[in-house]
Specification:
Radius of gyration of chain B: 29 Å
Number of domains of chain A: 1
Shape of chain A: globular
CATH architecture of chain A: 3-Layer(aba) Sandwich
Structural class of chain A: alpha/beta
CATH superfamily of the largest domain in chain B: FAD/NAD(P)-binding domain
Oligomer: heterodimer
CATH class of the largest domain in chain B: Alpha Beta
Distance between the termini of chain A: 27 Å
Largest sheet of chain A: 8 strands, mixed
CATH superfamily of chain A: Thiamin diphosphate (ThDP)-binding fold, Pyr/PP domains
Order of helices and strands of chain A: HEHEEHEHHEHEHEHHEEHH
Structural class of chain B: alpha/beta
Strand content of chain B: 15-25%
Strand order of the largest sheet of chain A: 3-1-4-5-7-6-8-9
Number of strands of chain A: 9
Bound molecules: flavin-adenine dinucleotide, thiamine diphosphate, iron/sulfur cluster, magnesium ion
Radius of gyration of chain A: 18 Å
Strand order of the largest sheet of chain B: 5-4-3-6-20
Helix content of chain A: 25-40%
Number of domains of chain B: 4
Chain lengths: 288, 565
């Protein structure tokens, strides 16, 4: 691993995530990097389940469970209250799902970003409303099966990273669980910054995507190496840095590991390959 | 009236999830385990390849060499002339080319000779005396393993010097004399009695058994096979064993301009290439066609580069020798689809179909027959069982005469230096059991191969952690240079090459403490534990059995074991 991970023990064993859960793995590197002097904000989602069955908690830090619409607004309130009290050391972090970020909580996030509120927002993107039974969100990729798109989703995944870049906030990064050192490095970097910092973490859902319990890291890396989900950072809406990108691995290698794609025809696989190529090309245009 | 106020606690959390037992969800648990690498299993000496390559990668060269010589006292020799089945078994072969194990072995072997490193002396001395008959690779390897364990070893060798085929057969351009001498000398420094010019016959066995507690017989296959169409006594007709022995002693008479070698195997290539170096034009006549010559492809390619002419798929029908020379009446043959007729031809003997109209004549001044060797076993069949010209042994090297063991070419048709050395090692271990009175009635140690699940397969390697890198091979001396003399024709690795090539080893089944298993557990159930030989332990209370640690181990050093509750 390229970056030496430094963990503080905030995240506990005994949590209720599924065996092999990528979201739990991501939470480990988010909260253990931020450390105990952090206040978490969690809307309804798998993260809420993982954070602990009341009255127990899996995180040795305060966690505020808010509504699905209002994570960014809640974090705004907490961050401003800390500031009013003269506390300039405690960090505020939202950990929300894609449904709570791309869709239901989007207006509060967009307005907090526009105001450049001082907190870290981590979206644990498992590409669907997973804890309620795998319905589609606007993050669900084109043609993927969900319980509410039985024939495959008809529209492409919303490009939230670029939407957040368009808000010109200090830091936007994409990350995924197959590269834990890269994820930990990005959280550590965000921790040292001020203003709204947004990290989009692709977190494969073993059940929702139809994966073996041990396949989370592998499929996450295939998302990167096929160019479906490149890992990059953008500072102040302008400075792009690519961390891990396409290695030219055919998209079919990524798709074929996942049951949510098993209905695809050859033509549809080619369509997804073409989309991935186009998106990768677009991103490369921004790098130079 | 005072309203009962509802008390809202400021903190709802009363404890942490680590009091919960998510381990009960599980049906299988990961186990950190040192496992067998396929190279190690394929090596006839069972060399601890991943262990010594790791040490070499860390530039702990002397420790690497010590780990290597625990199984193989002659790495500079085998690093040059072993047929390296380890590389055939190497998991990296399926990825981007096998690890250059053989060249790395030579690198360490040569370094040790240059640095003058010595073999570790036995930790303690034992009284028991053992005899080893035959000082070739099988005998020397057996003697080494016995001596290492403290036994008093006596080597009985018919010739004036030790080495067997290493000295008298394999040409010096493949195995330089100083390498051979250096490794044998270092072995003898462990202290053993050597009786050279001391041929042993079957009738000597009784007295040997009185003098020694156990005996290992490794007299090789030193009798050259002959062909009936060639006259038995003609100075211009010899066999490869005699020819190569003379070459190695430097006493070969002038061969003349034209030499014909009969045979298509490795020995034929050695004879042909040696004759080329002595200045002759050389034709090789082989029964098999080009594609199925028994010689290895690289040996054939080298001989062809050196100007040896190979005429494949032919047979010598008759020989006419006169003062002008030797006339070979040849004919094209086909071996394809030949089935030996039941009862007529012994199994395994090729029966060529003659192709009429393809007759031709070869005139030559010298013929070298290289059509195989067999063991000289006359008399020995009265002391133990001999079958198909080989001494019959169990998998552990025991003959059917108690206390008498055998190995090497005299027991097998698989005729390689490392195979002979491996059998010598295995027999030494069995002899140790015999001498300690732990010997099983039949079979014994080494009888059973490893269970297939114990060996790390390529599918268990997580290649994400190994970016592709290219394999390098030893260099070759230019052909013109090669033909000038008997100097070595291969160029071993530089220290830089050794390092980059050692880095290519996956270390199959051998934990390198990369911590991947630790970092990929979503349940923090893998704990680093320096007190354990396997470096990690699993928290039974929390592990959910997802197998991520197993999958993310780059090298198959963690396995999932099913649990029943
Ligand atoms: C020309 C040639 C080239 C070869 N090249 C290779 C190669 O490149 N790579 C490879 O892996 N293999 C090669 N081989 C095969 C390999 O050399 C043999 O398989 C190996 O040497 C067998 O070892 P051994 O100890 O059983 O027998 P040998 O090497 O034959 O040693 C037997 C020893 O026993 C002694 N001896 C014989 N009879 C008696 C007796 N009655 N009393 C006492 N001592 C006796 C002999 O003098 C000899 O020293 C080659 C073989 C030949 C002939
Ligand atoms: C306004 C509102 N609508 C619906 C719900 C029910 N609900 C709870 S969690 C959830 C799914 C959230 O999905 P996502 O944010 O992607 O998180 P995941 O479960 O996938 O981790 C839904 C729909 C709710 N709590 N609030
Ligand atoms: S990669 Fe290394 S340990 Fe694995 S088979 Fe090859 S040489 Fe042996
Ligand atoms: S990754 Fe953790 S939970 Fe999964 S099998 Fe390994 S030790 Fe158990
Ligand atoms: S993952 Fe790394 S540290 Fe863990 S067992 Fe495998 S080699 Fe050892
Ligand atoms: Mg989701």
């Amino acid at each position: 691993m390229g970056y030496q991970i430094k963990e503080e023990k905030v995240f506990n064993s005994g949590h209720a995530a599924c065996p092999g859960c990528s979201e739990a793995l991501a939470i480990r590197y988010v909260v253990n990097t931020l450390g105990p002097d952090t206040i978490g904000v969690v809307p309804p989602s798998c993260i809420a389940i993982i954070s602990g069955p009341q009255p127990l908690s899996s995180m040795r830090m305060p966690v505020y469970q808010t509504t699905l619409e209002s994570s960014a607004a809640s974090a705004t309130g907490i961050a401003r209250a800390l500031k009013a009290k003269g506390n300039d050391h405690t960090k505020v972090v939202v950990m929300a799902g894609d449904g709570g970020t791309y869709d239901i909580g989007f207006q509060s996030l967009s307005s907090a970003a526009e105001r450049n509120e001082d907190f870290i927002y981590v979206c644990l993107d498992n590409e669907g409303y997973m804890n309620t039974g795998a319905q589609k969100s606007s993050s669900t990729p084109h043609l993927a099966y969900t319980a509410s798109t039985p024939a495959g989703k008809l529209t492409p995944k919303k490009n939230l990273a670029e939407i957040m870049v368009a808000h010109r906030i200090p830091y936007v990064a994409t990350a995924t669980t197959g590269y834990p050192d890269d994820l930990a490095r990005k959280v550590a970097k965000a921790k040292e910054m001020k203003g709204l910092r947004f990290i989009l973490v692709l977190a494969p859902c073993l059940d929702g995507w139809g994966l073996a319990d041990n396949a989370g890291p592998k499929v996450s890396r295939l998302a990167v190496e096929t160019g479906v989900f490149p890992l990059y950072e953008v500072e102040n809406g302008e400075r792009y840095t690519l961390n891990y990108g396409s290695k030219g691995t055919p998209v079919v290698q990524y798709l074929s590991l996942q049951k949510r794609y098993r209905h695809l025809s050859q033509a549809q696989v080619e369509e997804l390959q073409a989309e991935a190529n186009l998106n990768w090309q677009r991103l490369q245009g921004k790098l130079s | 009236m005072a309203e009962a106020s509802k008390v809202v606690p400021s903190i709802w959390t009363t404890g942490w999830t680590d009091i919960l037992n998510t381990g009960t969800w599980r049906s299988a648990i990961p186990v950190h385990q040192k496992r067998l690498a396929p190279c190690h299993v394929a090596c006839p000496l069972n060399s601890e390849i991943p262990t010594w390559i790791k040490l070499a990668r860390e530039q702990s060269y002397q420790e690497a060499w010590l780990a290597l010589v625990a199984d193989n006292p002659f790495p500079a020799i085998t690093g040059r002339i072993c047929h390296h089945p380890c590389e055939g078994g190497c998991n990296r072969g399926e990825y981007d080319g096998a690890v250059a194990v053989n060249a790395l072995e030579q690198y360490l072997g040569d370094l040790a000779l240059r640095e003058g490193w010595s073999l570790p002396q036995p930790a303690s001395e034992l009284e028991q005396r053992v005899a080893v008959i035959g000082g070739g690779p099988a005998g020397l390897s057996c003697a080494y393993q016995l001596r290492r364990r403290g036994y008093q070893v006596t080597l009985l060798e018919a010739r004036s010097k030790l080495g067997g085929v290493l000295r008298e057969g394999i040409p010096q351009y493949r195995l330089p004399r100083e390498i051979l001498e250096g490794e044998i000398k270092r072995l003898l420094a462990l202290g053993m009695e050597v009786r050279t010019n001391h041929p042993i016959e079957a009738k000597d066995l009784d007295s040997l058994e009185k003098e020694f507690f156990a005996v290992f017989l490794a007299v090789g296959a030193q009798r050259a096979k002959t062909l009936p169409q060639f006259p038995a006594v003609d100075a211009r007709i010899t066999d490869a064993l005699h020819f190569l022995a003379k070459v190695s002693q430097g006493t070969v008479p002038s061969l003349g301009r034209q030499v014909v070698v009969i045979g298509g195997g490795s020995v034929a290539m050695d004879a042909a290439a040696s004759a080329r170096r002595l200045g002759s034009q050389v034709k090789v006549l082989a029964l098999e066609d080009r594609e199925s010559l028994p010689a290895r492809a690289d040996e054939l390619a080298e001989a062809l580069e050196e100007g040896v002419e190979v005429i494949a798929g032919v047979m010598v029908q008759s020989v006419v020798s006169s003062d002008e020379g030797i006339r070979l009446n040849c004919i094209g043959v086909s071996l394809a689809g030949t089935v030996p007729a039941a009862g007529t031809v012994p199994a395994g003997v090729l029966e060529p179909i003659l192709l009429p109209g393809t007759e031709f004549i070869v005139l030559t001044g010298q013929v070298i027959l290289a059509i195989g060797q067999e063991a000289e076993l006359s008399g020995w069949d009265s002391v133990f069982t001999v079958g198909q010209s080989l001494v019959k042994v169990e998998a552990n090297g025991a003959t059917d005469r108690p206390g008498v063991f055998a190995g090497g070419d005299v027991t097998t048709m698989e005729r390689y230096v490392s195979t002979a050395m491996g059998q010598g090692k295995k027999a030494a271990l069995s002899m140790g059991e015999f001498l300690r009175g732990e010997f099983p009635a039949t079979g014994g140690s080494g009888a059973e191969g490893p269970d297939p699940g114990a060996v790390v397969s390529y599918q268990e390697i997580n290649t994400f952690y190994f970016p592709p890198t290219s394999r390098e091979n030893k260099g070759n001396v230019a052909v013109e240079q090669r033909l000038r003399d008997f100097r070595e024709i291969k160029i071993g690795f530089t220290s830089q090459q050794a390092l980059t090539q050692a880095e290519r080893c996956f270390s199959c089944g051998h934990c390198m403490e990369c911590d991947n298993c630790f970092y990929f557990c979503p349940d923090m159930a893998v704990v680093k534990d320096a007190s354990l030989p396997e470096h990690y332990h699993i928290l039974d209370q929390y592990c959910k059995g997802c197998g991520s640690c197993v999958e993310e181990c780059p090298r198959g050093a963690v396995v999932l074991k099913e649990e029943t509750r």
